[in-house]
User: What shape does this take?
Amino acid sequence: MDEQPESSPATPDPGRHLDRRAELSEFLRTRRARLKPEDVGLPDFGRHRRVPGLRREELAQLAGVSVAYYTRLEQGNGRNVSAEVLEAIARALRLSDAESSHLTHLAKPKQHKKKPSAPTQHVRPPLRRLLDSIETVPAYISGRRSDILVWNRMAAAVFGDWSELPPQERNWARLVFLRPEYRELFVEWEQKATDIVSMLRMDAGCHPDDPRLSALVGELSVKSEEFRRLWATHDVKEKTYGVKRLHHPLVGDLTLHFEGFHLSDGSEQSLVTYHAEPDSPSADALRLLASWGTDATLAGASTQRPDLTP
Assistant: This one.
């Protein structure tokens, strides 16, 4: 299947980037707001509390740092913060592993060489051949910014033939938030949308100076109220594994287990596969889709089109 070139619907300003200090400030504030005093063994003074969650001084006490030090950090100044202090704050905030990594990326970003634009994402030829050889399991490789880079015939039969889309549209965030048919496809659409935004947040923490990511976030913020709401939560998540329930236009309901495998070649790409329980109705449906191949995608598109007219 096609590999997505690096392009976007509009050429972004090369100087655009996400404000790392603002990202750090909002991330810490939202993590602090979700904790209640009783969650961490502190007394609750009820109506006298003026802020949701913990106060800054309470969080500083739990982390073993001064209030002034923590306040500077929450204001976005993480320049001189040590790894030990970040670990203490992560423990106090009860951050997940993904959230702790995100905090470190925001507070102590890695220095990247200045480049005129983000590098093109290439998929190694052996991986492309591997996808083509997987005939009964939907599989694809995703890259930075939730871009869909390459996929096999079964992925096209289940999710739609992405080769028919312009390259810049082969992106999970754009598909989920801007194309109505994906609201029909994912039974728990809200969860899928939350996962996509959480992974974009992780990407933003690692690459706040990526103009294409900034342009994507800006576009989705303008076009989707749901995206704006989810982006404002500052939740982060890494792609791992789970179960997705789909409603396919031809074969009906599917319950598929997915696995995400981070590639170890430094490409920041992931191989994602979907499979059904053996001898289940979903397994039978996948076999039927495999026998139809591309015809299933075309028939499914024609079946949905009348219902998707705004």
Q: What stands out?
A: The two ends are 30 Å apart (CA to CA). The chain has a mean pLDDT of 84. The beta strands are 139-142, 148-151, 241-248, 252-262, 270-275. The first strand starts at residue 139 and ends at 142.
